[in-house]
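User: Predict the full complex structure for these chains.
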Amino acid sequence: MNPLVAPIGLSHYLVVGSILFVCGVLCMATKRNVLGVLMGIELVLNGANLNFIAFGSPMLRADQSNSIGLDGQMIALFVIVLAAAEAAVALAIALNYYHTHATVDVDQANELKG
Amino acid sequence: MDAINWHSFFFLMCALVACTFAIAVVIASNIVRMACYLVISLAAVAGLFFLAGADFLGAAQLMVYVGGTMVLLVFGVMLTARGPFVSMKTGPAQWLVALMAAGALLFVLVQASFSIPAWAGPLASQPQPATLPATAEQLGYGLLGVRADQLDQRDAVARGGLSGYLLPFEIISVHLVVVLVGAAYLARAKRRVTKLSTNTAGSHKP
Amino acid sequence: MIPQAIYEKLLHPFRPWLLAQDFAAIDPWIEVRADGLPEICRVLRDDPDLAFDMLNCITAVDYFEPDEKKAAAAEWQPHLELQYHLTSTVHRHRIVLKSRLARWQNNEIGQLPEAPSVSSVWSTAEWHEREVFDLMGVLFVGHRDLRRILCPEDWAGHPLRKDYQMPVEYHGIQAR
Amino acid sequence: MAEFLAQYVPSWLAYTAVGLVQAALCLVVALASAAVFIWLERKVSARIQDRLGPTRVGGRFGWLQPPADGIKLLCKEDIIPAAADAPLYRIAPYISFCAVFAVFLALPFASGWVALDLNAGAFFVLAVAGLEVFGVILGGYASGSKWSLYGAMRAAAQVISYEIPLALCVVVPVLITGSMNLVEIGDSQKGWFTSWYLFHDPFTFVTFWVYVTCVTASTNRAPFDLPEAESELVAGFLTEYSGWRWVVFFMAEYAAMFVVSGFGAVLFLGGWNGPIPLASLLGLTPENHAILGWLGNLLGMANFITKAVLGVVFMIWLRWTLPRLRIDQVMTTCLKYCVPIASAMLAGVMIWTYLFPKGVIDGVRHSAPVVQQASAQPQSGDHR
Amino acid sequence: MSTERMQPETVEFDVRTDEMLINMGPQHPSTHGVLRLVLRTDGEVVNEVTPHIGYLHRCAEKIGENLTPRQFLPYTDRLDYLAGISMNLGWALTVEKLLGHKVSEKTRHLRVIVAELSRIASHLVAAGCYGLDLGSFTPFMWTFREREKILDLYEDLCGARLTCSYITVGGVTADVPDGWLKKCEEFLTQFEPVIDDLHALLTNNAIFIQRTAGIGVMSKATALDYGCTGPVLRGSGVDWDLRRDGEPIYTEMYDGYTWRVIAAPEGKYPDDHPYPPVPPETILGDSWHRYFVRMLEVVQSMDLVRQGIEKYSMAAGDVDEPIPLKKKLPKGEAYLETEAPKGQMGFGIVSDGSPVPWRVRVKSSSFCNLSVTPELCQGVLVADIPAIIGSLDLVLGEIDR
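Assistant: Here is the predicted structure of the five-chain assembly.
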């Protein structure tokens, strides 16, 4: 079943979504720069968004009976807006952290430790 | 070999771009390179949105996410750059553990996405709409409560009682304003600039 | 207010410091002892009748004759002369203050003579005194940061002195 | 055109051919506009400064000056500074040019003559215009020098902050037409110049001038050209660029000028509808005959291009008369003047269209048919 | 001597960046000639400015000790190369003061005509370059087109456009070629409307006012304290112009001329001046006022040139010949300051009786005007530095000597 010919189904989108999600998690786990972690979060949110859109898309499913329809796109819109807000706050915290500690290395942020 | 299904061709293209650059973000060490790869990956995801029939969402993603959030991130990268972008390496041990965990998670997700037959895909027979579906207007009415896509809902109650998204949308916009004002206040540093005192150097108060 | 009256006004408080004066010259001048300069200048600026609020320029003249034949003929001993040209924008009158310095501090070649700085009275004196230090070699005591202003920082010698020899080469550039 | 070709050639070849033709057309328009406007800027600035401008290259009016410049710049040595981040340094100009070129896709030259008739056309143009700032930031950072980073940060701050009032101004015509489809916006301004949105009501008139200010600022032109402020930053982020990469940045700027004035023409000045509706008066409408309709569209396109060129001349005229603003004055004009005025005008237009609708309120009438034909996809723009 | 800007203010900035040392010059496009400014900036705000000069230092004073006064004259052209003839005038008058030499009536009026023309040329360069510093290119083109016409007049007069060495000790090198005075008048009549265009283009331009009003404010006390002179001093409201308040030998030149010093002692210009009203945002002593004083002086100089032409054509006799080349100088000292376009240009000469002077002193006005920049540029934005430096109208040839 040569991929170019077979029609694209919902599961293909889900696979791409999960790859993005996993890259995001990996990025958050391994990056020591606070902005790297932030980028990881963006990837995770995008993975989730892709799934929402895929589920709600009219073209990807055989029966439209239990498709979430427009709700998928609406929730994706909410996610995008909230991601912008989250990035702004995270950046403000990162900048303040940078001003006080003159570094953005996450591993050195251990003052709260006992 | 009958005609190439254009939809799947473009899907494969965008998906490949999105995934490779997502992996590049993980691998890259220089923070600015990471930011650029992320921008390209998000643009490819916007392409996927267009392909999935959500053209308004694709444009929104391009504008708000790539145009706004990513520029914010790049600004953050520039402002916290201390000298040449020192790339902070993480030890190989952490990499190993992270890779194993991620691999397991990926396997589970892919398994799940292929397990349900309903998600397999549309029958070849169902014609795919030629023109790009106009979701902008439907989303607009979705806000107002006229659920254009749910009208063939089986039970009348669901069709009648679906309230619009207007109220949550207003709440979100107020929330966004509050968050941005807070972020601006948080990032602002006060400084006293003394004029004409003998020591001309401004004393900085963190 | 003619130079004579200015002289009388200064006579009372600064009699020991005023050494000589000449009101017939083209630019009437008063010679003062070098160490009294800041006080006299402060009085000249702050006294309402004098009100010398503008220091036009600080000039340094090097009286020294390199070859012996002419040196004998000259009727002055080798010395440095500082000239302060002052103007009052209020009363529209002018005066020149002169003070005499030895060419070298207690006559050892290489020891720059010292004079008190008037930059506390007029801020323009700061750059003028830096220029005199740079070109003529006079150390101004009490100056904020006495550095060379026109010649490069590591330049040797003071060009406007009569016995100045141009260095043969500077940073690899043949000068002579 | 694609369907027509599909009868003879396998469908995928038809679609790619059509796509390539349209892309080539848009690219030609972008490059030609850049070349013409370089010549135009030299001539107009010469006239303002009481001198002749290029006359020696190619005939009396110096027609060959742009190609001459192009060849000269092509022959320049391709220098990449040592401290530069080479791949980013190379990619930056192309990012900003592609961002500007992408707007050509959605820009309608005449009723129906548009590369991609997007339903959310206006929104797409704003989205893609936001990407241009990446090219500037990357260019500034990748040049490695302190000055170019300064210029890049200033340019980014300026372009981003002017996107907000720009979006507010674009919402006004969208509100009046009830749809974001640019072809629809242009068609709804058919007829005499009174039907232009510029003269629709006092609020849209003011919105147009706020739009002009924001657009001049977001293309880094005239009084807002901080990033290339010669007197302080010696050319901002363009300092290290020379030769072909500088030409690409330069073309991006001039194409951006053409695009934003074209976009403004569609939104406020009736796009292809001239002051006097010549096409309908002469009967060159699709109803009479396809060829006549095509001629009408040709007339419309000429109309659209003259308006865009007039917009560019206005920007050039601004540049050669006004001195440059300081960075904080640029920001205050944006946050203290453009944003409040734009939002006030938006509110004003809302009230105006509610109280004195031009004919029936498009919005509500439009929604009724959608409810009945729920299952069928509503064809865009045919039931007016 | 504290002004209202002195008390420390809490200035808030979005983001704190570390301090940067930025070099502006010596080949920076907006520093006029080879001036190097080291700015210590924090983000956009400049905390401290330190000018470095001396890149153009030729030690003209040492050269003066080996040349007779008339041989030294061409060197004075190279001091302020934008107004060469005013420098010649200063040196010629200083030596004539030492010699006690009086020039004839006709020469005096010819000197006024030529000196005031050079003032117009110098102020035109100042206005044009100031527009260029603030980013608008057109005033530069208009002002230099008019200045070219003045340089053509110089070329007819003495062969050179820039370094004319026309006024010499004892008189002028050559009398006026016939038809030159008519050409002067033609230039003045066609120059009248250009002034109004310049006012419309720059002086009343809202953005120009925004960029210059209230920037680099210098109080009267600071101006006098730092020895600033010329339009920079009069821009701060000090009513002091050497053509009226100078030494008798210099003020005699302007006897019989009706003119008025352009300054706003109580912060208000004489209201009968037919020029655009002073915008409200400007504070006396800011960059805008220094620029405005120069524009008013251009019109005043045009009037002086017209009066000079009339008096020159009515004066009897002919122009004086310069003194012999190797004339022995009397023993003594002489120092004279003249009102050059950029400020008070001082020349001093000490002679011991031989034809070659013992010591030559050159005091430059831009030297003092530049010394005030560290104080003016405290806490301004980087974009204001060219606005302040441009308003001081500096020429590095004159500063470095």
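The radius of gyration of chain E is 21 Å.
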